[in-house]
Amino acid sequence: MSLTVYLSGEIHTDWREQIIEGAYGLDVHFESPVTDHAASDDCGVAILGEEPNKYWHDHKGAMVNAIRTRKGIVGADVVVVRFGEKYKQWNAAFDAGYAAALGKSLIILSQPEHQHPLKEVHAAALAVAEEPVQVVEILRYVLTGKLPG
């Protein structure tokens, strides 16, 4: 068995690298959004032309980025969504909802103090982890049937 895993959400820490490194040797292919914040914000205007209005600037970027995001989520066997310290990450919540609506296996990676604001997102997930290593252990178990340790 092999898995394609889409790593969505917070882009300011190394959680993706921790999961990818931890899953070394497993039959897993990882996909993710563009994690260069400036490139992600400005891709629409860099490709389609400048916008004097910030709303349209952001809108163009969101639309271009959505091409990659939709492809990644649709093609994934498992979607991992990380909510960082500031839980008001609307794009992460949207990706989690989109994945849930598609019936994707969803793992949420979040902190215990965000249990209440993320309760609906957590309820849609098959697992809620607090650390990247727990995501790795879930993937290892799914692929090998082996428990940690």
Explain what this protein looks like in three dimensions.
Helices cover 49% and strands 16% of the residues. The protein has helices at 15-22, 37-48, 54-75, 90-101, 119-124, 132-144; strands spanning 3-9, 28-31, 78-82, 105-109, 127-129. It has 149 residues and is α/β, with parallel strands linked by helices. Helix 1 (15-22) runs parallel beside helix 6 (132-144) and helix 2 packs across helix 3 (54-75). The longest helix is centred in the middle third of the chain and has 22 residues, at 54-75. It is built from 6 helices and 5 strands. The relative contact order is 0.19. The two termini are 21 Å apart. It has a 5-stranded parallel beta sheet with strand order 2-1-3-4-5, sandwiched between helices. It has a domain at 3-34 and 74-144: Response regulator (Rossmann fold, 3-Layer(aba) Sandwich), CATH 3.40.50. It is globular and about 55 Å long. It holds the Pfam family Nuc_deoxyri_tr3. This is YtoQ family protein. InterPro entries: YtoQ_family_protein.
